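Treating backbone geometry as a discrete language has practical consequences that deserve illustration. The amino acid sequence and the backbone structure tokens for this protein are reproduced below.
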Amino acid sequence: MKNNLLRKGLVFGIIVLFVGVSIVPSISGNIRKSSNVSSVEEFLNEGFCLEKNDEILDLAIVNMDNNDISILLGDGDGGFGNPQDYAVGSEPYGIVTGDFDKDGFLDLAVTNSGDHDVGVLLGDGDGGFGDRQDYSVGISPSRIVAGDFNSNQPPEAPTITGKTNGKAGTEYEYKFKATDPDGDNVKYYIDWGDGTEEWTTFHASGEEVTIGHTWTEQGTYTIRAKAKDVYGAESDWGTLKVTMPKNHQNSQSNHNKQQSSNQLSSNPLFFQILQRLMNTR
């Protein structure tokens, strides 16, 4: 096991993580070739305590000499699959997990001591990670921790106002507004109830945002919306029920029929000629 973990050169950090869950404990440390730790089991028993809330543990390893990290997915029987490598910055050192984008999946942050920055890799929930985003920090960063240091509060649930009855095929505008207790900008996630979903751009806290939508089928729909601030904190859902009982095309057809009837009744001579033509058939 030791040779497998160290096969790529000097390994400076190892972390145990659960893939696909949002809240897990993390472990970080320095493992060098001179370490007396010869197995993952010994590493976990070196005074670390895990509150396990996922079935299978996985590993993330920092490879300082290779400027990358390796992800080894556990099989549940004490074994691990082949490493999946992800490039990071120069001379990576520390590593930490957290759900940084609040999507329910674990992400990674790595200190790159040679580049004087921190790289963040967002997890996809299946053991993979997306493109790295780098953030400049001080000279030669080493260890790293993650936490909610500013005690950020989530926005309040959005209010939704607009027409609650209408015609299918017609666009209606709705207003969304949420207040963030910290005054942070917010964006809105809107579920229109017909399979259509969208995110808005960021707007000022308390600003009323107007969005238009068209329901193509008759029915009753529930609009749901939540607000998300610039730090990723999300509100509860706001809802509004709307009913589209009339079809726009049918309504237009009935309007045309009524208009034709009005024209005939206002022109009695034309109406008499039409009646005679019909009687002679």
